[in-house]
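Practice problem: predict the structure.
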Amino acid sequence: MAVVEQILTTAAARSESRVPTLDGRFQADRAVWLCACVTDFDAPTWLIVDVDHGGIGWCRVPDGFDVSTFVRAPLVTGDHLHPEQVLHWLEDRDDRFWPGDRTADDREIQVLGQKIRGLQAG
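Answer:
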């Protein structure tokens, strides 16, 4: 799981701009929460946010907190996954980690993954 956080930290540090915050909450265009609870150990929930003009940010959501405590965005989506699914998405080995039918949110998630990987490439 440290690899996931390293990828997200590097992408956020290299992004064109920062995601603005207000009263401790990200003010983003999109937010994706990924709960890595499909495991046998303590599961993190990662919140990844971005804005159209290039900024990416992320944080861990502590147990017992609602994602809305940390972000305000028109699109907030997420799911419960295995950490390997998250890593495969970040490494572009699987852009369909969402179970079930493809949705409009799925396209947003693909774009966010491409953005993160693009920022990782340098």
